[in-house]
Predict the structure of DoxX family protein.
Amino acid sequence: MRIPNLERRSFYLRLIYALCLCGATWTHLQVALVHGLWWDYGGVAPLTRVYWTSLLFIDPLTVLLLLLSPRAGLILCVAVIGTDVVHNSWFALHHPIRMDLYLSQIVFLLFVAFTVRTAWRGATSRSAALRAVD
């Protein structure tokens, strides 16, 4: 069965988003493996600790949703990268940060912002995707 172009582009965009989020998951996993889930990140505010640690679980959930329930995954992806950049921008005003990671988040946010409309338009609901396979 041939997949229409828009659906194919949506899938490829969601796959790129998922790969980027897998990279973010790897970063959060390394922190958890070295310092544990309850690390205070050098004494940062409790809500920052909770937010950063929660990304260890939210990022892979977003990856799964991008592949299994595309529109829910896209909504969560935009929410995750949007809040991450906003939070880390605020954090950078008060603390030193790793500029390479921060800039990569901004680039990812811009990529998502400029492509999410195409990803959304070509995304089908999970039930429609399953019917297409039948």
Remarks:
- The CA atoms of residues 73 and 79 lie 10 Å apart.
- DSSP finds five helices and no strands in the chain.
- The helical segments are 5-35, 46-68, 70-94, 99-122, 126-133.
